[in-house]
Every structure is written in C-alpha cells, then in structure tokens.
Amino acid sequence: MIFHKVTSLKGEVTIPGDKSISHRAVMFGSLAEGTTEVTNFLQGADCLSTISCFRKLGIEIENTPDRILIHGKGLHGLSEPTDTLDTGNSGTTTRLISGILAGQPFTTVLNGDASIQTRPMKRIITPLSMMGADITSLKGNDCAPLRICGSQLHGITYQSPVASAQVKSCVLLAGLYADAPTSVAEPILSRNHTELMLTGFGAKVTSSGTTATIEPEPDLKGMKIEIPGDISSAAYFIAAGLIIPNSEILVKNVGINPTRDGILRVAKEMGGDITILNEKISGGEPTCDLLVRSSSLKGVTVGGEIIPTLIDEIPMIAVMACFAEGTTIIKDAQELKVKESNRIDTVVTNLKAMGAHIEATDDGMIIEGGYPLHGAVIDSHLDHRIAMSFAVGALGADGETTIEGADCVKISYPEFYESLKSLIQQ
Ligand code: S3P
C-alpha cells in the first residue's frame, strides 16, 4: 500500500473495541452460566481466533454486526475439541486459553501461525507446571504447538519474572480450577482487565499492589459487556494529529484504564495538545473522547514503571519521536523483542530506511528527532502495529512510502486505512 505526505488531518474517528477486553469477554463468557451479550466487540482476526477456539470447545457463539452472544456453559462446561485449536497470530488467545485448558478433563493441542510458533511459551509453561499442569511444547523449543493434558491443579503463589498480563491472566485462569487460592505477583503492574472483568462475572479476585489473587471454583454468571475503544488503536490517531501540521482530530471512545494510558502521559510530556472530553465508565472501564491538535513536540525518556502501560504503543512513540526536537530514549522495553515481530529490530530498521537518526539498544532505542523523514519501502513483517505506525509516519514523510504486508492491520483494526484516509484534507 502506498502513502504520500499530507498537509492536514481533520475530522473525527470512532475507535473500535479493545482487543484485550474483547478476547476476555469471549473467554470468560464461555466459562459463565448463561448468556453474555457483548457490544462493540472487536471484529479483528485475533479476537475471531478466540471465538473459533471456544466454538471448537463446544460453546455456541452468535456473532452478528450489532452484538455477540456467548451461550456459556459454566466453569466445567467445555468439551474436548476434535482437532487442533488454531490461535492464529494471537499471543493473548494462546496464553490465556492455556490456563483454562490446563484445568480441563481432556487433552488439547494448540497451534498458530509462523509468528506464534516463535513466541516464548516457557513463561506460561513454568507456572502452569508448578500448578501440576501437564503441558508440552511439541517441538521441544518452548513455543507452540503446545499439548495440554488436563490435570488437577494446585493453588500457588507465583512471582512472575516479567510484567505480562498474558502470563498473569493465564495463571489466574488456571487458578479457577485449582484446589486452593492462586496469587501472581508481577515486577510492575500490567493491564488489569482480567481482574476487573472476572470480578464482574462473579469471581473472587483481590488485587494488592502488583499482586492479584483468585479463589477457585466461583459461580460465574453471564452478563452484558460494552467494550470500550482500544487506546492502542487510538494511539495512531493521537500521534497523527500531533505530528501532521494543521491538524485537529476528535478521537472518540477511548478506554483510559490507568494500566493502559501511558501513551497519553508520554504524548503530553512531549508537549502534545490533547484535551480529555466526555469521561465516563463503559463496561467497568473508564473511557473518554480525545481532542488532539498539531503540536511542537520535544524528546523524552520513556522507561521503568510506565513501560507495561504503553508496551504496544512503542512503535508509534518511536515514529513520533522522529518528529520531535531533541533526543528520545526508550528503555526497559526488552519485551518488544518477543511481540508479533522483534519490534526493536523492525522499528529501527524501517525508521533508518526513512532517514531517521535512530539506534537500537538492548532494551529499547535512542532517537535523535528533528531530522525530516523520507519515503521508503517498509517491511511490516506482518506485524499490525508496525504497519499502522509507519502508515502514520508516511503521512509526515517526503516522497512515497510503500508498506509491504499492509493487510496485517486486520489483526487488530480492520478499518484502519479507511479511517486514516477519511481525515486527509486535500
Ligand atoms: C495483552 C497483553 C500484552 C500486550 C498484548 C495484549 C493482553 O502482552 O502486548 O498485545 O491482552 O493481555 P504481555 O502481557 O505479554 O506484555
């Protein structure tokens, strides 16, 4: 797909449903008794992988344009699938469902696409095995495909070496089936959608600092959930509004859970003109609209406790930093190496191709901003967040930019290019 520099972006965009929360609504709704009705569900390929896995586990899920209905069968209502569960490109599906499958009285094999087959699964194999689970990486490389033979699980207290909501959620979900309470402590608090939503379904989950604890065998009851817009998807429009001159964008329906809002804090620290409007609670999560105007940005240091709250937005922050005066340092972000692509490599290589002054470090990158970007051929590595971040960067770069594998945005934001193009002023 080809992009050229634009002179102004104006208008409004409504952000589709949050990917993390959409996955959880399907999973927890499947484990609840009765029907769960979900509105503003994200119809991205990752969330459709979750639906397809739970259908194969015997759950009826109606997916219509207005809402999805999940006819849950309770904590012990899943049935043995007849073939391998395909988790597609989705790390969230793979890791969270593994926690659930570890406690079932049957065996499942999980596999996904080429990217999923390189993503680290030892981070869930270790705690699940401590709980008594029987989980094997079939190629012996600690990646998918995984075989999970259900077992009686034991409650544990797990000190996670990584701040990962996927690891935390996997262990808490296994804890639903354990013989005693299960606790997960993280080095830094990661997104807490599992804790919030499971509580809404009737589970007993307590959080204290960076530790979450779950009681086993709750009665989960179906409920209505309205999914807030995904701040990770909003990030592209926040950045676009700030870096393209003469721009004013109203970004509507943005979830601003404090475990996810690091992009707002960083964009404001960079000097971004962002106004929060219409704050309300939607689906148990704070949401708002954001009015974003072109701004003169300055470089910042991003590291430490804020990293888990913006981990998926770092490619966009790196592009934004090229349009800022001064140096931006991104550190403590080693996790970027194990996302849908190695995002330290894919960001740095592609930004260098556009003429950016950027260097990779072991845990992030250093960017000297203020040097104009020029068009280039960008390899998305089929990573949706790389494709979207560089589409935005291309609108501020001289000449022509080609994004290869641009279609991969269907993973989290199928309408992304239409929404972006609708803002371009001729
Ligand atoms: C997610 C958690 C994050 C994030 C991913 C979605 C989730 O991963 O990068 O896109 O829904 O729990 P980690 O928890 O592994 O950092």
From TrEMBL:
It holds the Pfam family EPSP_synthase. Pathway: Metabolic intermediate biosynthesis; chorismate biosynthesis; chorismate from D-erythrose 4-phosphate and phosphoenolpyruvate: step 6/7. InterPro entries: Enolpyruvate_Tfrase_dom, Enolpyruvate_Tfrase_sf, EPSP_synthase, EPSP_synthase_CS, RNA3'P_cycl/enolpyr_Trfase_a/b. Residues 5-420 form the Enolpyruvate transferase domain. It comes from the Bacteria. GO terms for molecular function: 3-phosphoshikimate 1-carboxyvinyltransferase activity. Keywords: Amino-acid biosynthesis, Aromatic amino acid biosynthesis, Cytoplasm, Transferase. CDD domains: EPSP_synthase. It catalyses: 3-phosphoshikimate + phosphoenolpyruvate = 5-O-(1-carboxyvinyl)-3-phosphoshikimate + phosphate. It is found in: Cytoplasm. Its EC number is 2.5.1.19. Phosphoenolpyruvate binds at K19, G91, R119, Q166, R343, R385. The keyword DNA-binding does not apply. SUPFAM superfamilies: EPT/RTPC-like. Belongs to the EPSP synthase family. This is 3-phosphoshikimate 1-carboxyvinyltransferase. It comes from Jingyaoa shaoxingensis.
